[in-house]
Amino acid sequence: MTLDDAKKIEEREPADEADPAAKQGLLDGHTERRRDLDVPAAPKEKTAKDEQLNRLVNSLETVGDLKELKLNQLLALEDKFEGILLYVFTDVADKDEKLDFKNWKGYREIQPGTKLTIDFRGNKEAFWKVGAGDILPPAVRAISVVEGDGDNRNVRTSVKRIGLKGRGSHEKGFFDERGYMPIFTGNSIIVGGEKEPEKGVDREFDKYRKVGADGKPGELDYERYEQEHGAEDQEFYKKNVLDNPLAQRTKAISGEDATRIMEASEASGMGKKAAEKAIAVAEARDNLGLGGASCCFDWVSKIYHEVGATRRQYFDSLSQYGGKDCGEAHAGPEQYAGLRPGDHIFYNVFHQLGQAVDSRGNHSAIFLGWEDKDNLVARLASGSYGTTWHFHEKPTDFNKAPITRIYKPV
Q1: Which of 208, 248, 360, 368 is most buried by its number of CB atoms within 10 A?
Q2: Between 107 and 365, the higher pLDDT residue
Q3: Nearest CA-CA partner of 295 in 379, 386, 359
Q4: CA–CA dist 271, 60 (Å, integer)
Q5: How many CB atoms lie within 10 A of CB 341?
Q6: Alpha-carbon distance 132 to 143, whole Å?
């Protein structure tokens, strides 16, 4: 059974209920849409692209109809009907609600402190490729992304927003000290940030709009924004993302990302070979022909066999606890300091996450490297029975899922 929460999170219930009063303004004027809605066209004649988009619009009845749309279709709709992604991919609207492409009232006036729960409605492209920068209006310059609650509550708060809208690019959007901040179904977004939300909403960014024929602000003026903020944004991105080998750059981790993290985490010898093979197999659509593993442990065995590695046990605490919860019987500072890319680890997901995996509450994976070593946040790859070998799309926090056994490849 895989522990890649992101791949199963579509089945989860939202982590937090957003404040109905705070979101009421977003629904005001949201009425049943009209048929045969014309998409704005060029002055002389409607382009083929406009006609195609118009046909798409008229094929959609409810929020739930967007489930099968591709990323380019979603972004085209957002360009023409700015605000639609906020309505269809948060809990502001129900999946059965009728779409009205001309009545997203309140989108631009979204209030600091508003809490929105993300729901990608089963749309896989949106789940893996749409970010908070694609959804939120330009005036929102900071957010907090909340996952879980109680003792399992994780919060990331942005320090920078790049761009007016994400437009499908992970070089634009919200960033913190760890890099790009992804959002997944079940996460909550706090507009403006959790601690001082008023400071995270700046209406001055509403000025980056072109004046329409009616004399009112209309579509976003990306060119003007780039002229005034492009150099500053590029400097931030280079310093805090490109020059930081551990910074997250995309929503879905790639082989290039994993390799960069591995190389920054003291990879060497047989461990490096095992980690490189783990990355190559995860990156390949067909897992390089590997498959048929009976469990997560067996998957690691297959990776090790490919590079001629055997295991040498470095640490074990399974004998120190019974049942599934390891309690305090887990790795400590010395063991975490000794982790290297390619190590085969057991980590206890039952400890705080309450997930049942094997009879001892553990899951097997290959350690690829540290995303945040000081806070014990790591990148892993694993597989399980019926699940292919893959990168864990979200980093693993060993404070919440501590290591109970470590093998070194030799």
Answers
A1: 368
A2: 365
A3: 386
A4: 51
A5: 30
A6: 9
CA 157 centroid distance within chain: 14
Contacts of 102 (CB under 8 A, 6+ apart): 33, 37, 81
Per-residue pLDDT, averaged over 268-281, amounts to 96
Instruction: Quote the CA–CA distance of 90 and 268 in Å, as a whole number.
Output: 44
Cβ contacts of 384-388, under 8 Å, gap ≥ 24? 384/1, 384/2, 384/293, 384/295, 384/296, 384/299, 385/1, 385/293, 385/294, 385/295, 385/296, 387/1, 387/2, 388/287, 388/291
Query: At residue 65, does pLDDT exceed 80?
Result: yes
Cβ(343)–Cβ(409) below 8 Å: yes
Q: Is the pLDDT of residue 10 over 50?
A: no
- For residues 390 and 291, the answer to whether their CB atoms sit within 8 Å is no
Residue in the block written with tokens 């009545």: 103
DSSP 241: I
**Integer angstrom CA distances of residue 244 from 86, 180, 340:** 31, 12, 19
| Residue among 277, 272, 273, 275 nearest 289 (CA) | 277
Tokens of 256: 């290039």
Whether the per-residue pLDDT at 229 is higher than 90: the answer is yes
Amino acid identity, position 377: V
Q: What is the mean pLDDT of the chain?
A: 85
Helices (H), 264-387: 269-283, 296-306, 333-337, 350-353
Do 192 and 161 touch, CB atoms closer than 8 A? Answer: no
**What is the model's pTM?**
0.71
Phi, psi of 385 (to 5 degrees): -60, 120
For the chain, the maximum distance between any two Cα atoms, rounded to a whole number of angstroms, is 77
Cβ–Cβ < 8 Å for 160, 28: no
First to last CA, the chain: 26
Query: Rounded to an integer, what distance in angstroms lies between the CA atom of residue 278 and that of residue 261?
Result: 13
Cβ pair 145, 189 in contact under 8 A: yes
| Domain positions in the chain | 5-242, 255-409
Give the separation between CA 55 and CA 46, rounded to whole angstroms: 13
